[in-house]
């Protein structure tokens, strides 16, 4: 992670100047050399565009970076994109270890107009800057190196600490999701949770097979049966006092499909099926570092969905933690089985004010919304609005899908209380209708992040995302916790 620094007076290897599309006069006013660049039309402030300029009187390497305009995502996101573009421009330069990023004052003002204070606005810009510098390093030659410092001369000093907390949570989420599945299997997730608990002072509880059996968590157990690594339910708790929020993250460390096996091309992306749990872990770390006044419990039902002689089978009927019996129409609809147990357990044991789950749950969510928004579904209008607001504030767009009762009919089973598949029509919604059966009266929001959890062929494209995991959800959980606490 890069160090994030607020305030002036440091030597840096490069200086970046971020402006919106209609802020290029500001760029021109800084240096006649920039004015010439603008006049030639080589820098126009377009979102995500950048240019390295040499020979400026302001810096040995000057970067001009574009924030575009508010488009559909608003001025704070424009600011994030501009900052991220600036950072990306220097990430590739071998001898640049530090960069200072200055933002066109009017762009900051417009961002402030969206309702956060300047500490928050700069915090968000700084998080985007760090996300843009992220690299997932497994290659030996990539070890060491990377951008070390990002300085924001105009930022309030309080922004740096909170930005580092959030940025670290996002980095952690990306690392866990990016990590190959044979290392970050259910056991690896437990180890990581243990490391995190020790380092950040969180309470850890892990329910292993014996306890899952005595609790009757038939969903987690069934999905985990085919793997040689045992399933487990990992619970991490941060208690800052205040309202309680429970977050369940889908943590299928690898989704082969099970006996309803996926074609090899589709399987290639399924190490990312742990992205929901990864985001929950990252958010727990960020919340603890931020000392948010909430009680945050994150639950990760960690399983590997594998075909083998011991796998659960199509048309099995399994009994879940809440007593419902489920017909397994398809072993590849595994996520909802693991989430259902964890949700029912969280609702019953913690009685949270808000229950949230994040899951790479359905390919159909990608068909519906593509890679530019997560699908949001809920049993509670008020909480849905809160999470929606949090997500958009965080730069993580969501779009709500209906939860009409009639969709539930698609899950009817002749042999059990409910089927785990509802056919091709309305895939994300029938999955959510399935989960709804397990949350009781608890206010709950489900986020299907299948399209946004990692960068796919059609996005999400933002300069603060690179190939691989996006860490989607960490920032939404943090903003939601802040709204709940307010
Ligand atoms: N993890 C997948 C969903 C997924 C697929 C996410 C592609 C991102 C990209 C999930 O477990 C799954 O396999 N879902 C099935 C459900 C179906 C069997 C009802 C799907 O979407 O095809
Ligand atoms: Mn699956
Ligand atoms: Zn899955």
Describe the structure.
The chain is of the alpha/beta class. It has two domains: 3-155, Leucine Aminopeptidase, subunit E, domain 1 (3-Layer(aba) Sandwich), CATH 3.40.220; 171-485, Zn peptidases (Aminopeptidase, 3-Layer(aba) Sandwich). Helices cover 38% and strands 20% of the residues. It contains 16 helices and 18 strands. The protein has helices spanning 24-30, 32-39, 74-91, 105-112, 118-132, 158-178, 186-200, 209-215, 218-224, 264-267, 275-290, 335-350, 363-369, 381-394, 427-436, 474-485, and strands at residues 3-6, 14-20, 50-54, 61-68, 98-103, 149-152, 203-207, 232-239, 244-249, 251-255, 295-305, 317-319, 325-327, 354-359, 374-378, 398-400, 418-419, 444-448. The strands form three sheets. Strands 7, 8, 9, 10, 11, 14, 15, 16 and 18 form a nine-stranded mixed sheet that branches. The chain has a six-stranded mixed sheet with strand order 1-6-5-2-4-3, with helices on both faces. Strand 12 and strand 13 (325-327) form a beta hairpin. Helix 14 crosses helix 16. The longest helix has 21 residues, at 158-178. The radius of gyration is 23 Å and the shape is elongated. The model has no long low-confidence stretch (mean pLDDT 98). The chain binds ligand BES, manganese (II) ion and zinc ion (ZN). Residues 252, 255, 273, 334-335 line the site of zinc ion.
């Amino acid at each position: 992670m890069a160090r994030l620094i607020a305030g002036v007076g440091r030597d840096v290897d490069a200086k970046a100047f971020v402006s919106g599309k209609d802020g290029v006069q500001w760029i021109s006013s800084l240096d006649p050399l920039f004015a010439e660049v603008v006049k030639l039309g080589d820098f126009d402030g377009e979102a995500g565009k950048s240019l390295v300029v040499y020979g400026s009187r302001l810096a040995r390497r000057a970067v001009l970076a574009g924030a575009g305009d508010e488009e559909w995502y608003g001025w704070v996101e424009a600011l994030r994109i501009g900052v991220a573009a600036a950072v990306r421009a220097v990430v590739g330069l071998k001898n640049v270890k530090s960069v200072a990023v200055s933002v066109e004052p009017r762009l900051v003002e417009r961002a402030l107009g969206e309702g956060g204070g300047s500490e928050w606005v700069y915090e968000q810009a700084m998080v985007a800057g760090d996300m843009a510098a992220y690299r997932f390093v497994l290659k030996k030659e990539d070890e060491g190196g990377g951008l070390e410092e990002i300085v924001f001369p105009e930022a309030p000093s309080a922004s740096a600490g909170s930005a580092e907390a959030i940025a670290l949570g996002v980095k952690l989420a990306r690392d866990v999701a990016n990590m190959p599945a044979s290392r970050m299997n259910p056991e690896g997730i437990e180890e990581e949770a243990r490391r995190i608990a020790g380092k950040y002072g969180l309470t850890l509880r892990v329910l292993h097979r014996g306890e899952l059996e005595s609790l009757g968590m038939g969903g987690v157990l069934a999905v985990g049966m085919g793997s040689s690594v045992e399933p487990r339910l990992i619970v991490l708790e941060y208690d800052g006092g205040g309202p309680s929020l429970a977050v369940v993250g889908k943590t299928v460390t690898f989704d082969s499909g099970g006996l309803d096996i996926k074609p090899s091309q589709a399987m290639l992306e399924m190490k990312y099926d742990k992205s929901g749990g990864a985001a929950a872990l990252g958010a727990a770390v960020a919340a603890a570092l931020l000392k948010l006044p909430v009680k945050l419990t994150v639950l990760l039902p960690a399983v590997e969905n594998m075909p083998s002689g011991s796998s659960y089978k199509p048309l099995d009927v399994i009994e879940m933690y809440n007593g419902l019996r489920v017909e397994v129409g398809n072993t590849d609809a595994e996520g909802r089985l693991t989430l259902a147990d964890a949700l029912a357990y969280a609702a019953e044991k913690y009685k949270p004010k808000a229950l949230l789950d994040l899951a790479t749950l359905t390919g159909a969510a990608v068909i519906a919304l593509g890679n530019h928004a997560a699908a949001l579904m809920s049993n509670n209008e008020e909480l849905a609005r809160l999470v929606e607001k949090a997500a958009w504030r965080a730069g993580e767009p969501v779009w709500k899908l209906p939860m009409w009762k009639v969709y539930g009919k698609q899950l009817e089973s002749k042999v059990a209380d409910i089927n785990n598949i509802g056919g091709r029509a309305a895939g994300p919604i029938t999955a959510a209708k399935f989960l709804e059966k397990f949350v009781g009266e608890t206010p709950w929001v489900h986020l299907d992040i299948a399209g946004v959890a990692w960068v796919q062929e059609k996005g999400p494209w933002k300069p603060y995302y690179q190939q691989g995991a996006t860490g989607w959800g960490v920032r939404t959980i943090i903003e939601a916790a802040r709204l709940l606490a307010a």
